[in-house]
Design brief:
about 500 residues; alpha/beta; Rossmann fold; six-stranded mixed sheet; five-stranded parallel sheet; 11 strands
Length: about 500
């Protein structure tokens, strides 16, 4: 039952409301009736109340003052205000404290029913959010939550970054999150609960599935979800799970092991579902060896671009056909870039130039490597790159003007004529931030300015800085600023 406190100085009104709530058939229980806000505060501070109905005008401490105290003390309890028509101006003041709803006197069963329904939805959502917070904390630390077992999958979207930098722009991250959540809602199994938790980077997610139901196959559930997500995504998706359920108190350790497993087993450009748990698992072997790399080395050394293009295309095709893991493929690419370094040693040593892929397909990887080769040969012939890079300044100027738009890596690549990895590297070298991080900081700074204006609406501010979903914007804002947009002054 959801515990309710009524704060009302008129006994007849308070008792009538209590009776209406008790007879509503909804899961609410009135645990206390307080005559004013001062009397109600101890119950709120102790966590006794899960929902509050409060009158506006009361002696000692009125409803507005109570709401202000709750906000100042960060008591986040869904609240409904009770008011008469003559008190509407007071009720309007209360709206700034993010009350859930209001009831007009005289009270009626018909007026109360939709309010209780909304309160129930708000309470259930907050309960889910609290559980998500607990589960998210458990992903990072070994904190006991509750006994039992669950099925768990670590999910990687697209390219696995070699560094913790967020290589996705803000718009991409939200788009993929919406897909993940929508596909999970479609798997509406009766009696099954599931939670989708954001991991340590934009590409990582953790899915937990409650498995107390007899005959439930967690692996089939996860595989169904994988197939749905794979078909909906325009990037590769990698799932790693255990063959059987795990203790919910060990999900932190399990997540680390599955994450490590993905980094060893993920196949570049392919969506894959893996089951871990075999103690004899080994890293995939290198069946190709260094075949083809020697020819690439000769082409680079002799600066034979046409031959290099053809041999590189054939080499990457053979890697794709053998379903080479990303880890092994990137070691091969590192060998190719070392050939660059040897051939252009003087230039590369002075510029600290290096290559890191930012794509998810072999076709894009081929283009990135060719672009990298062209950039090096061109800059080497021109005597190196200036310390203050004009291209980086041009990118920054463009981002300053268009940060509120739905920018993507592909859009920036077409705009400036270079592959995303090159643009990202020179931008970070110049400004110490990823492009995605800079866009996010500009959006946050602009939203602060807009929220400081009188009567600013969170929905309007979110749209102004590039977020169509105000709820998602609020979560991003709180994560970066430390408070909700509605509380920012």
């Amino acid at each position: 039952m959801i515990r309710v406190i009524i704060v009302e100085d008129e006994p007849l009104t308070a008792n009538a409301l209590a009776i209406l709530i008790q007879k509503s058939g909804e899961p609410f229980e009135v645990v206390h009736i307080a005559e004013n806000g001062k009397e109600a505060l101890p119950y709120l501070r102790s966590g006794t109340a899960e929902v509050v109905f409060t009158d506006i005008r009361m002696p000692i401490m009125d409803g507005i003052t109570l709401l202000k105290c709750m906000q100042d003390e960060h008591i986040e309890v869904p609240t409904v205000i009770i008011s008469g028509y003559s008190e509407f101006d007071y009720a309007r003041q209360a709206l700034k404290y993010q009350v859930v709803d209001y009831l007009l006197k005289p009270l009626s069963r018909q007026g109360l029913a939709p309010v209780l329904e909304r309160l129930k939805n708000v309470y259930e959502k907050r309960s889910r959010d609290k559980l998500m917070t607990l589960l998210s904390a458990n992903v990072s630390e070994e904190k006991p939550i509750q006994p039992g077992k669950c099925y768990m999958a670590v999910i990687a979207l697209g390219l696995l970054p070699s560094t913790p930098d967020d290589l996705l722009l803000p718009g991409n991250k939200h788009e993929y999150q919406v897909i993940m959540e929508d596909e999970l809602k479609k798997l509406n199994y009766e009696g099954i609960s599931s939670w989708l938790i954001h991991g340590s980077s934009s590409i990582e997610w953790i899915l937990l599935v409650e498995c107390f139901k007899d005959g439930f196959s967690g692996n089939l559930y996860l595989q169904s979800y994988f197939e749905n997500v794979r078909k909906s995504m325009d990037i590769p998706v990698t799932f790693a799970s255990y063959k059987s359920g795990i203790s919910i108190n060990s999900i932190g350790t399990a997540r680390k092991k599955l994450r490590s497993f993905i980094y060893k087993q993920a196949v570049f450009s392919k969506s894959k579902f893996f089951l871990a748990g075999n103690e004899n698992e080994t890293t995939p072997s290198d069946l190709q060896g260094n075949k083809g790399l020697e020819d690439l080395y000769s082409c680079i050394k002799r600066k034979e671009k046409k031959a290099f293009d053809m041999i590189l295309k054939n080499y990457l095709k053979s890697c794709e056909e053998s379903e080479m893991t990303q880890a092994l493929l990137f070691r091969k690419i590192q060998m190719i870039t070392e050939y660059y370094r040897e051939s252009f040693s003087a230039f590369l040593e002075t510029t600290n130039f290096y290559f890191e892929p930012s794509c998810c397909t072999y076709e894009e990887l081929y283009d990135e490597l060719l672009d990298f080769y062209s950039v090096i040969t061109k800059q080497n012939s021109e005597g190196g790159i200036l310390k203050s890079n004009p291209l980086a300044r041009e990118i920054k100027g463009y981002l300053d003007q268009h940060f509120a738009e739905n920018l993507t890596n592909e859009h920036l690549s077409k705009k400036f004529g270079f592959v995303p990895s090159y643009l990202g590297r020179i931008f970070k070298k110049e400004y110490g931030s990823t492009i995605g991080g800079y866009i996010l900081s500009r959006r946050i700074d602009e939203s602060k300015k807009l929220l400081s204006e009188k009567d600013a609406m969170v929905k309007d501010v979110a749209l102004s800085v590039g977020y169509s979903d105000p709820y998602y914007f609020s979560k991003v804002f709180k994560k970066n600023v430390g408070c909700w947009p509605s509380d920012y002054h």
